User: Fold these one by one.
Assistant:
Number 1:
Amino acid sequence: MSFIQVRDVWQAYGGRSIIERVTLDVSEGEFVSIVGASGCGKSTFLRLLLADERPVRGTITVDGGDVAVEPGRERGVVFQRYSVFPHLTVRENIVAAEGFNTASGWLFGAAKRTSRERADAILARIGLNHVAEQYPASLSGGMQQRLAIGQALTAKPRVLLLDEPFGALDPGTRVQMHDFLTELRAETKMTVFMVSHDLEEAFKLGDRVLVFDKPRWDPQDPGLYGATITYEFDARDGGMPYQHILDRYPSLKPQAEPAPERLLEPA
Amino acid sequence: MRLINLSPSRPLAVFLAAVPFVAVLIAYAAGSEIRLAANPADKLLPALSTIQETAVRLFTEGDRRSGEILLWKDTWASLSRLLGGVAISASLSLVIGMVVGLLPMFRSLLSGFVAVLSMVPPLALLPILFIVFGLGETSKVVLIVIGITPFMTRDLAQRVLDIPHEQLVKAQTLGASSWVIAARVALPQVLPRLIANVRLTLGSAWLFLIAAEAVAAEVGLGYRIFLVRRYLAMDVILTYVIWITLLAFVLDWLLKQLSRKAFPWMEAGL
């Protein structure tokens, strides 16, 4: 059984279908990019994965568990904006990833100290240790998103969901963030879903690229039908398919050919 | 150059800020001068010097009968009513506002009720309050509470609703319970708004306080003003009005400083 199972998921708001008949299997550790036109339900699909919304039909399960009814620690998220808490300093934002999980919301004594030490280690890893005492509003957009990713990863989710995480960043910062995310992924082996508007980004980072689009279109009532996964690309190995097919099917390897002696013989 | 692009230099700005104050003073002094020239016993516009003498007397000399300085006694009585009422309103509105803003169940239960309640004109309830709570301190404090709590509650509930949904989702993905979200995400972000609300509603609170004191009281700034009105003691009234204005200004300034000191993250982006 696959790690994440999406089975025949439909979502509609007030009778308007947004997405329909989405079925998907994702293995643990895969990076799935989701692309598509604006308003095609990419973000809706991400919210469904997050359990922020519940589908009108169908189920989504992680590792064979129950269908989630609300967001939880299993699924981490980074949004385009508003992903960090503006009233907490950078370090407190990281500590919150552990502290929020307690009954009171605060850590005390030794737990607080060790959490702060871990937070400082994480800040050093994501290159924000020099601004640990500052508030997020004084950071640049790229730094805020690094903090948001660090915060999400501190909670050790099983799936990380990224909703256009780099959409508001300038191109240079965006490339840095790609490298940052690639490194983090190599370290954590996490399953990631990323919604993106940027095709290049989707193929560069993703193992798989899913395209959401409407397969049915009613010219009298464009909102009647929802979008679904219309294409799926294998984005590994620079987007070139079948690079490892011989590893999977060794029988396809060319047999050692007999020496072409006959050709050398004179007629 | 367009008028909208014309801004004053620093000295000019200070001068412009002073102009209305000086203009009012001059206008008053001139009017007072003209009336006093016609009738030296005129009580309507006492000379600035008379007001000053009265002010010194009110602030320093005790009452002939009891020996107490009435102005300080009035100030103490009024401020304790005002601050008591505002403190109760702030606590009530914070709790109800947070509950309405965060919990959809309570939003359905209470938001309509609060909206209707905030339409009731509080001063129209004053007679009822006097009947129910008597003429003592309670009815005055309750008037302030009834007068400003619904407005503050509605505003705070709206502020809680204005917290981006993303933040609430994020907190949930970090494992926060409803209580933790209330205490660590919503509360710290609406507290600055609570202080701003208190600053905004202090004006109304003064209005309700003085109205209540004018109708029935034995001590208080509003009571004194309405008492000396009978003797046309404009110098006393004006001194009290200036004193109340000063108190209101200082309270506002203190709250502003508190907000700045307590919520440094509010200004981090500036």
Note: Chain B touches chain A through 24 residues (CB under 8 Å).
Number 2:
Amino acid sequence: MARHEQQSKKRRSCRFCDNKETYIDYKDERRLSRFVSEQGKIIPKRITGNCAGHQRQLVQAIKRARHLALIPFVSESIR
Amino acid sequence: MSEAHRSYETTYIINASIEDSQIEATIARVAEAIERNGGTITATNRWGRKRMAYPIDKKNNGYYLNVEFEGPGQMIAQLERVYQLDENIIRFLTILLDKYALEARAKTAAETTAAAVPATENPGTEKTGEAGTSGRPVKGEKPQEPVSADKAEKKDSDSRAPLFPEDGR
């Protein structure tokens, strides 16, 4: 029971839904870097709490940004 | 023969180590290619010389450009061929702007103009920061708790900090 309550407290709501955003731009590198780990990996929605739809958009945006070298595939400190 | 014109956006990176005149020539060539294939350019944003997140073709810097245009879908294949044949263009990305993208764009445009008015009234510290990022999505609408990824970003941005002022257009 107690564990259950804790979990429900930890549950985060989707930030994009909270802001009523309908589009995630690949050019906004600072925003995207927030959803990427230190190594440059995309953080799963299980951690960030994003909803499925926004996570899909986000993933697409991150991949586009990587292609244009706006954000790294692998962070320089790891390489 | 009903060609639906749709909105597209191309971001491309020009080799930054070539002369400015050559960069201008490349930009003009791309613009000409878009017009020739039946497109109309609605906006051109120059981000200028920027450090890339990883080296491409052993180059660390690139001249970034973003062109928004409208045109028939068949033109995209021809355009991409132009990009590929151009030696000075080292990367490009063309995307379709759907209605959500256009909506969001209109919204941020409205916000930046709204934000620009009070900024001129009382010149604050934020003004300079905004001038540098104008034409791109508004950042920092929601100051959030820094995530660990932010730290990595900061570390990186320190090394490329001197490059950002050149970013102006």
Note: Residues 18 and 50 of chain A are 10 Å apart (CA to CA).
